[in-house]
């Protein structure tokens, strides 16, 4: 199997990374993080989400963040939108790309967005239609693709069924989320093999949380399956508020180091990325979750 020559990294740190933080984080610090990431060469940054502030208080300031970031040409600045209300609010803040998020397990869907999988998909249809009419691209997420905190094992066929629906309604890319990080490389390969029967592999992405320390291996497993888009979070920040104990995404620095070693081009500057990650860790007063960043910073 030949590996992809180019990989696109979707930086989810400002959203997935920060959404679970209990301490207040200023709009200035969020804007600075996004600007640092674009300056490091990240071409796709998930900046925030337009969800209920009662459910995820940390994302309440997303509109302000969007209006204050420095928009670099060629960079996509995206937001999560669970329904029309969120979509309209995102548009009003100048957002030009959004993501909807469904789950492969019923109980997680209820906990995360307070409705069944079928209801969530029905809710996305008018959003996709409105987005199409306005020329806004929509990405689709599926959570719990390699395990659910409430239901345990999740069959790949169940993931494939949700992926087919999201793709059919117009999501240009489907990101498969290992929300609780229990997936292993073998299961990841099998998942992409099954979902890839219905959806072209260049329309699939991997989103691996690193709770069990498997995320980087799962990225490599995805590469072996011909997947060339991966979500990651600078300094490994994050966790999902509705998956207790789930830790951050795979660290962007660590994925970049892996890709560089494989000779795969991304256009991202590792040193600037490490600096961006350490800066937000200092703000949060947290240890850096990237092994590569820790190693580079300890060299002095
Ligand atoms: P609900 O309570 O069922 O919604 O929540 P509702 O339509 O009945 O409305 C209730 C209240 O929420 C109303 O306000 C609405 O106006 C308001 P009230 O009248 O009570 O004052 N509301 C909103 N406010 C702001 N923005 C909105 C919005 N919609 C309704 N868009 C809802 C349903 C989906 C809104 C709620 O469950 C929610 O916001 N959930 C947030 C879920 C979330 O953000 N989870 C984390 C992101 S997903 C993730 O991390 C996984 C991922 O990384 C992949 C992976 O790792 O697996 C993507
Ligand atoms: Mg996530």
From TrEMBL:
Biological or metabolic pathway of the protein: Metabolic intermediate metabolism; (S)-3-hydroxy-3-methylglutaryl-CoA degradation; acetoacetate from (S)-3-hydroxy-3-methylglutaryl-CoA: step 1/1
Source organism, top-level taxon: Bacteria
Reactions this protein catalyses: (3S)-3-hydroxy-3-methylglutaryl-CoA = acetoacetate + acetyl-CoA
Keyword annotations from UniProtKB, A to Z: Lyase, Metal-binding
GO terms, molecular function: hydroxymethylglutaryl-CoA lyase activity; metal ion binding
InterPro entries attached to this UniProt entry: Aldolase_TIM, HMG_CoA_lyase_AS, HMGL, PYR_CT
Stated family: Belongs to the HMG-CoA lyase family.
Protein name: hydroxymethylglutaryl-CoA lyase
Upper taxonomic lineage: Bacteria, Pseudomonadati, Pseudomonadota, Gammaproteobacteria, Pseudomonadales
């Amino acid at each position: 199997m030949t590996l992809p020559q180019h990989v696109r990294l979707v930086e989810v740190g400002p959203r997935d990374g920060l959404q679970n933080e209990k301490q207040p984080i200023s709009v200035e610090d969020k804007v600075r993080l996004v600007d640092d990431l674009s300056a490091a060469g990240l071409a796709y940054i998930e900046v925030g989400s337009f969800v209920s502030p009662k459910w995820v208080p940390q994302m309440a300031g997303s509109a302000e963040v969007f209006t204050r970031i420095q928009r670099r040409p060629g960079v996509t600045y995206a937001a999560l939108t669970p329904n029309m209300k969120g979509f309209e609010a995102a548009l009003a803040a100048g957002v030009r790309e959004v993501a909807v998020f469904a789950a492969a397990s019923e109980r997680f869907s209820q906990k995360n967005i307070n409705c069944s999988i079928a209801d969530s998909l029905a809710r996305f249809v008018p959003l996709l239609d409105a987005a199409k009419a306005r020329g806004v691209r929509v990405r689709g997420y599926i959570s719990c693709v390699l395990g659910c905190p409430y239901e345990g094992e999740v069959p790949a066929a169940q993931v494939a069924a949700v992926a087919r629906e999201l793709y059919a309604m117009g999501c240009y890319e489907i990101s498969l989320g290992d929300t609780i990080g229990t997936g292993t490389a073998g299961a990841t390969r099998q998942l992409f093999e099954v979902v890839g029967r219905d959806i072209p592999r260049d329309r699939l992405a991997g989103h691996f949380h690193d709770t069990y320390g498997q995320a980087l291996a799962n990225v490599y497993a995805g590469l072996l399956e011909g997947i060339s888009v991966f979500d990651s979070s600078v300094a490994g920040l994050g966790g999902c508020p509705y998956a207790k104990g789930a830790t951050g995404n795979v660290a962007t620095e660590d994925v970049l180091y892996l890709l560089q070693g494989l000779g795969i081009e991304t256009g991202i500057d590792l040193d600037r990325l490490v600096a961006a990650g350490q800066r937000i860790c200092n703000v949060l007063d947290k240890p850096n979750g990237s092994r590569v960043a820790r190693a580079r910073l300890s060299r002095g």
